[in-house]
Amino acid sequence: MSRAKDIAKKNALRIKRKRRVRGKISGTAEKPRVSIFKSNRFLSAQVIDDVAGITLASVSSKALGLTANKESASKAGAELANSLKAKNIDTVTFDRNGYLYHGVVAAFADALRDNGIKL
Prior knowledge:
- The protein has 119 residues and is of the alpha+beta class.
- The chain has a single domain (2-114), classed as 2-Layer Sandwich (Nucleotidyltransferase, domain 5).
- It is 45% helix and 19% strand.
- It has helices spanning 2-22, 61-64, 70-86, 104-114; strands at residues 33-38, 43-49, 54-60, 93-95.
- Strands 3-2-1-4 form a four-stranded mixed sheet.
- The longest helix has 21 residues, at 2-22.
- The chain starts with a helix and ends in a 5-residue tail after the last helix.
- One of its GO terms (molecular function) is 5S rRNA binding.
- This is one of the proteins that bind and probably mediate the attachment of the 5S RNA into the large ribosomal subunit, where it forms part of the central protuberance.
- Keywords: Ribonucleoprotein, Ribosomal protein, RNA-binding, rRNA-binding.
Protein backbone atom coordinates (compact mmCIF):
# COMPACT_ATOMS: atom_id res chain seq x y z
CA MET A 1 0.00 0.00 0.00
CA SER A 2 2.86 2.35 0.75
CA ARG A 3 4.28 1.88 -2.77
CA ALA A 4 1.02 2.99 -4.37
CA LYS A 5 1.00 6.14 -2.25
CA ASP A 6 4.60 6.87 -3.21
CA ILE A 7 3.80 6.52 -6.91
CA ALA A 8 0.73 8.74 -6.58
CA LYS A 9 2.76 11.40 -4.77
CA LYS A 10 5.51 11.25 -7.40
CA ASN A 11 2.97 11.70 -10.22
CA ALA A 12 1.22 14.53 -8.35
CA LEU A 13 4.52 16.39 -7.96
CA ARG A 14 5.28 15.93 -11.68
CA ILE A 15 1.86 17.32 -12.62
CA LYS A 16 2.49 20.29 -10.32
CA ARG A 17 5.84 20.97 -12.05
CA LYS A 18 4.20 20.51 -15.45
CA ARG A 19 1.52 23.12 -14.76
CA ARG A 20 4.09 25.58 -13.42
CA VAL A 21 6.25 25.26 -16.55
CA ARG A 22 3.30 25.31 -18.99
CA GLY A 23 2.10 28.58 -17.50
CA LYS A 24 5.25 30.22 -18.83
CA ILE A 25 5.72 28.66 -22.29
CA SER A 26 3.55 28.37 -25.36
CA GLY A 27 4.09 27.32 -28.96
CA THR A 28 3.37 29.33 -32.09
CA ALA A 29 3.52 28.48 -35.79
CA GLU A 30 6.99 30.08 -36.05
CA LYS A 31 8.30 28.57 -32.80
CA PRO A 32 6.25 25.49 -31.84
CA ARG A 33 6.45 23.67 -28.52
CA VAL A 34 8.07 20.22 -28.30
CA SER A 35 6.32 18.30 -25.52
CA ILE A 36 7.94 15.07 -24.36
CA PHE A 37 6.32 12.16 -22.52
CA LYS A 38 8.18 9.21 -21.09
CA SER A 39 7.07 6.06 -19.41
CA ASN A 40 9.21 3.25 -18.11
CA ARG A 41 9.00 1.48 -21.50
CA PHE A 42 8.54 4.14 -24.18
CA LEU A 43 9.17 7.76 -25.10
CA SER A 44 7.03 10.03 -27.27
CA ALA A 45 7.14 13.67 -28.31
CA GLN A 46 4.83 16.06 -30.12
CA VAL A 47 5.49 19.37 -31.84
CA ILE A 48 2.51 21.59 -31.05
CA ASP A 49 1.25 24.95 -32.31
CA ASP A 50 -0.73 26.14 -29.27
CA VAL A 51 -2.24 29.14 -31.08
CA ALA A 52 -3.95 27.00 -33.73
CA GLY A 53 -4.24 23.99 -31.40
CA ILE A 54 -2.69 21.50 -33.81
CA THR A 55 0.09 18.93 -33.71
CA LEU A 56 2.65 19.60 -36.43
CA ALA A 57 4.79 16.47 -35.99
CA SER A 58 5.23 13.60 -33.59
CA VAL A 59 7.51 10.69 -32.84
CA SER A 60 7.08 7.58 -30.72
CA SER A 61 9.75 5.13 -29.67
CA LYS A 62 7.11 2.38 -29.71
CA ALA A 63 6.37 2.99 -33.40
CA LEU A 64 10.11 3.03 -34.15
CA GLY A 65 10.68 -0.22 -32.25
CA LEU A 66 12.78 1.48 -29.57
CA THR A 67 12.64 1.61 -25.77
CA ALA A 68 13.02 4.39 -23.20
CA ASN A 69 16.78 4.63 -22.79
CA LYS A 70 19.26 7.32 -23.75
CA GLU A 71 20.33 5.70 -27.02
CA SER A 72 16.72 5.30 -28.14
CA ALA A 73 15.95 8.87 -27.08
CA SER A 74 18.78 10.09 -29.31
CA LYS A 75 17.42 8.12 -32.28
CA ALA A 76 13.89 9.41 -31.66
CA GLY A 77 15.21 12.97 -31.38
CA ALA A 78 17.04 12.62 -34.68
CA GLU A 79 13.87 11.27 -36.33
CA LEU A 80 11.82 14.20 -35.01
CA ALA A 81 14.48 16.67 -36.15
CA ASN A 82 14.30 15.23 -39.68
CA SER A 83 10.52 15.62 -39.80
CA LEU A 84 10.84 19.21 -38.51
CA LYS A 85 13.40 20.05 -41.18
CA ALA A 86 11.02 18.67 -43.82
CA LYS A 87 8.42 21.18 -42.58
CA ASN A 88 10.98 24.05 -42.54
CA ILE A 89 10.92 24.42 -38.74
CA ASP A 90 14.33 25.13 -37.23
CA THR A 91 13.49 26.72 -33.84
CA VAL A 92 11.31 25.19 -31.12
CA THR A 93 10.46 25.67 -27.46
CA PHE A 94 11.26 22.61 -25.34
CA ASP A 95 8.60 21.49 -22.84
CA ARG A 96 10.07 18.90 -20.50
CA ASN A 97 6.53 18.18 -19.24
CA GLY A 98 7.47 18.18 -15.55
CA TYR A 99 10.29 15.67 -15.91
CA LEU A 100 13.74 16.49 -14.60
CA TYR A 101 16.17 17.56 -17.30
CA HIS A 102 18.60 14.64 -17.21
CA GLY A 103 18.95 11.17 -18.64
CA VAL A 104 16.43 10.38 -21.37
CA VAL A 105 14.96 13.90 -21.52
CA ALA A 106 18.38 15.53 -21.86
CA ALA A 107 19.48 12.96 -24.47
CA PHE A 108 16.37 13.72 -26.54
CA ALA A 109 17.00 17.49 -26.37
CA ASP A 110 20.68 17.04 -27.24
CA ALA A 111 19.73 14.92 -30.28
CA LEU A 112 17.45 17.71 -31.49
CA ARG A 113 20.29 20.24 -31.09
CA ASP A 114 22.82 17.95 -32.79
CA ASN A 115 20.52 17.63 -35.81
CA GLY A 116 20.16 21.38 -36.33
CA ILE A 117 17.08 22.32 -34.29
CA LYS A 118 17.50 25.33 -32.00
CA LEU A 119 15.92 25.01 -28.56
